[in-house]
Amino acid sequence: MNVPSAPIPADSGDAATDNNTPAPYKTPLPVLQLAVLCAVRLMDPVTFTQIFPYINEFLAKLHLVKDESQIGFYSGVVESTFAFFQLISIYHWAKLSEKIGRRPIVIGGTFGLALATLLLGFTSSLWAILLSRALAGLCSGIAAVLHSVLGELTDSTNQHIAFPLYGLFWPLGSILGPIIGGSLANPAEKYPDVFDYSLFRTYPYLLPCLTTGLLAFVTAVVATIFLTETHPSKQPSINTSGAEHISSHRSLNFMSVPEQSQLTILQLLSIPIIRALSVSGASLCFTATAFDSVFVLFCYTSIPEGGLDFNTSTIGYALAIAGTSSIAIQTLILPSLLRHFGHAHLYNFCMSMWPIAYILMPFLNLFAYEPVQLWIAITVLLSVSRVACLAYSVSMVLVKENAPSPYALGQSNGLVMFAMCASRAVAPAFVRSGLFHPGTGSR
């Protein structure tokens, strides 16, 4: 599979430049604000991925098709519904946050995500599932606003720590979500001594939705209490010399644009690196989302048909390996890479890992009857894919460093993430529609 990768214009965001010019003041990390932001970020992957281990089984119980081998199309539609509604909301949330501030968008979106996830647990038809995932997608559109908050909380003296820390909460959520979904689905059957009630027999997937929805609700409450506003135009006048220096130091990364001006999409796209990040980001998100979708379907497919024939719990454990690998890479490797390598070159290296991941996947079937070798092979494959996923974190750094002004950071993040979500919306349904057959890799 060929993965198109738009070249990122050269090294305006390279870390080496900052390393050669020592900063006179190193900004301390805003620990509390970063912790709250990371907690909010965690809820997106937790609520998004908790459905992965059981979605195929869920849809099969609805008797949508006679041949269960075709169920992948409907699970792809469910995932694409989430992504489509995130797509149509993400730029608008980002633009609205430039007017009313970041804080109300972040808090409102997190409360909405909690509600949408709880509603999913009470669904019993395809249309109800799609409706709940559409609402969750709309609320997850705040992702670009979260990226903007991160950019406004940090500067070039501490971003090599803050961005990897923030970035690891997606893989952490990708561990926690599948574990919750895989272990808590069908609780009346798995844990009859505790959950053998008619409610859980009628709604066998309520418990994982209730658990993740409650986590999102608590996170929203915490954000309401502790999260402060970060938008530059919503800040009080800065009087202390240290704070003035921080503000001045952050502004060095931005081009000259009138304060609080609203740029059009065409104006943003006229900036070469923002345009390149948007195009390449679309490729990145399509490739990454397609990989995750195909991997889940590959695990669910029977061994004679080229898959691994995993049950929901085992699929959850396999996905947890991906998250564990990503956490290790984000925390142990990425900070050093950001300090010592040019950000543009690092981004392109990560993108080059995707063809390797796709080539390796079909070979897992060769080890289907050898458990030890199989799990070693799965770990290698998913580690390669998580190295490739570092491109997401590097992209955030590049957007922050090349936004036209502090007052257009939200729009810049919104545009790049709009491009990513456009790909995310079509990737699952495309790869599961029959155009791609897991196990053979043929069209």
From TrEMBL:
Pfam families: MFS_1 (PF07690). PROSITE patterns: MFS. GO terms for cellular component: membrane. InterPro entries: MFS, MFS_dom, MFS_trans_sf, Tet-R_TetA/multi-R_MdtG-like. Residues 33-443 form the Major facilitator superfamily (MFS) profile domain. The chain crosses the membrane at residues 71-93, 105-129, 135-153, 165-185, 205-227, 276-303, 315-334, 346-368, 374-399. Its main location: membrane. It is found in: Membrane. Signal peptide: none annotated. It is a multi-pass membrane protein. Keywords: Membrane, Transmembrane, Transmembrane helix, Transport. It comes from the Eukaryota. Residues 1-22 are annotated as: Disordered. GO terms for molecular function: transmembrane transporter activity. PANTHER family: MAJOR FACILITATOR SUPERFAMILY (MFS) PROFILE DOMAIN-CONTAINING PROTEIN (PTHR23504:SF15), MAJOR FACILITATOR SUPERFAMILY DOMAIN-CONTAINING PROTEIN 10 (PTHR23504). This is Major facilitator superfamily (MFS) profile domain-containing protein. It comes from Ephemerocybe angulata.
